[in-house]
Amino acid sequence: MPTSTITDELSHHERRLLRRAGSDHLNQWLTHTASTRGCRRPVRLTGSIDTVERDTGRIIDTRHTASDMPDGVLYVPCGDRRASVCPPCAETYRADTYQLIKAGLTGGKGIPTSVAGHPAVFATLTAPSFGPVHSRKVNPRTGKVAPCHMRRNAIRCPHGKLLVCTQRHTENHPSLGRPLCLDCYDHAHHVVWNCWAGELWRRTTQAMNRALRPWERLYGVKLRVSYGKVAEYQRRGVVHFHALIRLDVRPNIDPKRGPVQDPDAILAPPADITGQDFAELVARAAASVSFETHPYADTGHTWPMHWGPQIASAPSATSAPARSPPKPSPPTWPSTRPRPPKPPGSHPPGG
Ligand SMILES: [Zn+2]
Ligand SMILES: [Zn+2]
Ligand SMILES: [Zn+2]
pTM value? Predict the structure, then answer.
């Protein structure tokens, strides 16, 4: 009768793991791989490392991966930002980015703490619609999920599909983000929009800087926007951007304009400009940007590029509050203050 041991039932991978755990060099191996911080798919480098004396250029030590390192390789974290690819590296990136953005808003890491008083805005910029998709809308007041696409006068698309979905989709429902009619949905525009979204953002930052000119003339300073932004995919597979945008005064480097300042200095804007003023400027600048893509090589077709109608731009929590009394608007600036909120109870029924 054949005898079987536990090790016979283990996979190749598990057997290697056991061998490693029982090895005399386990501690050395753990120290060697610790720098990858748990990376799932570290890059394996082979070759030699020279230690060079800085002043003389003389090589004082050489280590070869093949002979001097466990496994014969040097492990380096993959550094991928996507949690779907490498959760530990994505987490390192997320934590680094958080610290960087926090420093940009409140100071630290070489940035003066005075930036906490600068007007700053949290903006969310999304793509326009390329056709109706299944979605999940939650009423923020009641927490109830609304039907996906309710239409009183439901219409049929040219392909005969009723553009209606009465379901209240669960959070991870597989149809979320899928078009109601795959043939109506403008897939080409969707793909092109993702491809050109970076250029749309670049032009938006230019528009913001241009929009600052009336304030520059009014206050006699040079202004600039500094930002940190992240791109995320929505359910429908379209990119959207979240950006924290801060307003700074550009240091003077022109002797003709007055005393020259440190070009790296981060200077506070005039105290009259509030976070709300800046949020309105960012929203207006983003809404004003549009362009046509280069013609597609085969057909010469171009696609319009602009943001969707829902541009969210609000003063960040660190932004300086509005001062009183309210200052008059700059003379060259159209006044587009938001309307005061309606008194409670004035909403139309069902609204
Ligand atoms: Zn990794
Ligand atoms: Zn639906
Ligand atoms: Zn259709």
Answer: 0.71
